[in-house]
Amino acid sequence: EVQLVESGGGAVRPGGSLRLSCAASGFTFDDYAMGWVRQAPGKGLEWVSSINWNGDSTTYADSVRGRFTISRDNARNSLSLQMNSLRAEDTAMYHCVRDVGYTRGNWFDPWGQGILVTVSS
Amino acid sequence: DIQMTQSPSSLSASVGDRVTITCRASESISTYLNWYQQKPGEAPKLLMFDASKMIYVALSLQSGVPSRFRGSGSGTDFTLTITSLQPEDFATYYCQQSFSPPWTFGQGTKVEIK
Predict the structure, then answer these.
(1) Fewer CB near the terminus (10 Å): N or C of chain B?
(2) How far apart are CA B97 and CA B5, in angstroms?
(3) Which whole-number Å values give the CA distances from A112 to A80, A96, B28, B38, B56, in the listed order?
(4) Half-sphere exposure in the Cβ direction for B29 (13 Å, CA)
(5) What pLDDT is attached to residue A22?
């Protein structure tokens, strides 16, 4: 069974940092791009970032570019999101996703259950 | 960025009803359009990619998505139709364009019980 399990969330003050991790299992990790999609409480979905299969190509939403860094460790089947200079508007559930395709024509499947990040003073 | 607009934002329907959700892109995206279903407290689940295609489970050749879900459209206008609404279909549905990054979603359509 394909599974994505996030960890590392929690509460942080504005300007602080947090590192999210995603453990992948049930598929050949380095065959796929991976990504993060977030959902603010009671709101819709917002794509955050994606990384290609070997980590040499990354893309970011404008809202996080320069503050967030996505990375992966194929030896450990692991995806990470380093979040710096956090703002209140970054408060959301962060879902790890398998980004099937990575470029035009991609889709996100499956999704992890998500990990909550709360940015508040 | 490509803007995605869904309508309606919410709807009430009864079991057995035919339900149609519309998604409009701010520019032509060919058929690069995906649909997701999200039930309360759960992660979103892919329903359809490339506007009308379903994922088939490897080896079993069965789709994990019931055949009552139908996707259609191209260019800027797309629809997701549930031909006969079932109790497990009450959820929020999102479209997402996969034509060009940043990948953007519609605001969602919540399907509620009448």
Answers:
(1) C
(2) 11
(3) 13, 5, 30, 12, 20
(4) 32
(5) 98
Residue A56, C-beta contacts closer than 8 angstroms, at least 6 positions apart: none
What pLDDT score does A120 carry?
Answer: 97
Quote the CA–CA distance of B114 and B111 in Å, as a whole number.
9
CA distance A111 to chain B (A): 6
Q: What is the pLDDT of residues A75-107, one digit of tens each?
A: 999 999 999 999 999 999 999 999 999 899 999
Closest Cβ opposite residue A111 in set B43, B99, B108 = B43
Picking from A32, A47, A45, the residue whose alpha carbon sits closest to that of residue A102 is A32
Token pair of A108, please?
């996100």
CB contact under 8 Å between A61 and B94, yes or no, is no
**CA gap A84, A71 in Å, rounded:** 14
Residue holding tokens 């892109």? B25
C-alpha distance from A50 to closest chain B C-alpha (Å): 10
In this prediction, what percent of chain B has a pLDDT beyond 70?
A: 93
- Of the candidates A103, A108, A113, A99, which has an alpha carbon nearest to the alpha carbon of residue B34? A108
Instruction: Write out chain A residues lying below 8 Å of B44, CB-based.
Output: 37, 45, 95, 108, 111
